[in-house]
Amino acid sequence: MWTCKKCGRIFEKTGQPHSCQKIPLQQHFKNKEKAKKIFDYFVEQVNKKVGKCKIISLPCCIHLYGNYDFVAILPKKDGLEIRFAFDKKIKKLRLKQCVLISANFYKICIDVHDQKDINAELMKWLKQSYNLKN
Q1: Residue pair 75/87 in contact by the 8 Å Cβ criterion
Q2: C-beta of residue 62 within 8 angstroms of C-beta of residue 28
Q3: Residue 68 forms beta bridges with which residues?
Q4: Quick check: 22 and 58 in contact, CB under 8 A?
Q5: In the chain, where are the structural domains located?
Q6: How do 62-65 and 95-100 pair as beta strands?
Q7: Residues 86 and 106 sit within 8 Å (Cβ to Cβ)
Q8: How distant, in Å, are the alpha carbons of 71, 73, 77, 103 from that of 53?
Q9: What angle do CA 112, 30, 21 make, to 5 degrees?
Q10: What CA–CA distances, in Å, run from 56 to 10, 40, 45, 115?
Q11: Which pLDDT score, from 0 to 100, does residue 101 have?
Q12: Are 132 and 106 in contact (CB under 8 A)?
């Protein structure tokens, strides 16, 4: 693992190309009050049930880091889009997308429109994602 000395982001490969640009977290939630409430609850649940994480706000989205970047969050007007890596295909109606991104990993996308969508099933998946590279 490599940590960029300029921005503090953690990557698998030394010198991995990236942008060090960050933006204030609140900028993602301008006119998205519902998404902010869901986000705060989501982060609280992740810290309690998955593992401690650090929030990094990039221009494209918000990332949660444990020992590595394990969740990307895209705030929407009516909720959040949650993206994470997983080591097997998941077949559930609630998934927006499950795409093979390498020989061993899938990108999982889920829309969260309410706090009740942040349930035990999602926390179980995120805990597995959090531990994939640990």
Answers
A1: no
A2: yes
A3: none
A4: yes
A5: 22-130
A6: unpaired
A7: yes
A8: 10, 13, 24, 27
A9: 95
A10: 11, 14, 17, 22
A11: 83
A12: no
Q: What span, in angstroms and rounded, lies between the C-alpha atoms of 71 and 131? A: 12
Please report where in the chains the tokens 């991104």 appear, as a residue: 101
DSSP 3: E
Q: Which of 131, 113, 134 is nearest to 42 (CA)?
A: 113
Cα separation, 128 vs 97, in Å, equals: 18
Contact between 89 and 106 (Cβ < 8 Å): yes
* For residues 34-47, average pLDDT: 97
**Cα separation of 11 and 49, whole Å?**
24
Mean pLDDT of 33-59: 95
Q: pLDDT for 55-93, tens place per residue?
A: 989 888 999 988 777 899 999 999 999 999 888 888 887
Q: Residue 125's beta-bridge partner residues?
A: none
Global pTM?
0.85
Quick one: which of 86, 82, 66 has its CA closest to 74?
Answer: 82
Average pLDDT in the 39-58 region? 95
Q: If you search the block for the tokens 């000395």, which residue do you land on?
A: 5
Q: Which residues pair with 55 in a beta bridge?
A: 64
